[in-house]
Amino acid sequence: MLARDGTESRTFRDEYGGDHVLLLQRYYCPCCRERYIERPDCLEKGKLYLKWIIDKVRLGDSKFELFLQCDTSTIYRWKNG
Q1: 49: domain range?
Q2: Side-chain-facing half-sphere of 36: CA atoms under 13 Å
Q3: Which of 1, 11, 57, 59 has an alpha carbon 20 to 30 Å from 29's alpha carbon atom?
Q4: Which pTM value belongs to this model?
């Protein structure tokens, strides 16, 4: 049985480069002594941008890459990662 263990704030960016803060619920499992974070489907673990933005770049939308305000090294990592 999971028990609530507070919240964690997560910052993410949209396609315009705007930062947004989202509060995510944390859970604790007393059996395995691990903490779990409930993430919505629009966020990837460890990524700053929304999932649909990363997926669109991975599909090769070059016009969207020019519009997106992030480093070229980030786009390269998304394509080759």
Answers
A1: 40-80
A2: 13
A3: 11
A4: 0.74
45 and 21 in a common domain = no
Q: Which letter does DSSP use for residue 48 in this model?
A: S
Using alpha carbons, select from 74, 39, 38 the residue that is nearest to residue 53. Answer: 74
Pair (29, 48) in one structural domain: no
Give the span between the Cα atoms of 62 and 59, in whole angstroms. 9
Instruction: Identify any residues that bridge with 25 across adjacent strands, giving them in sequence order.
Output: 7
Question: Within this chain, do residues 44 and 71 fall inside the same structural domain, yes or no?
Answer: yes
CA angle (79, 48, 68) in 5-degree steps: 60
Q: What is the pLDDT of residues 7-50, one digit of tens each?
A: 999 999 988 888 999 999 999 999 999 999 998 998 888 888 99
Residues 1-5: contacts with CB under 8 Å, at least 24 apart: 1/29, 1/30, 2/27, 2/28, 2/29, 2/36, 3/27, 3/28, 3/29, 3/30, 4/28, 5/35
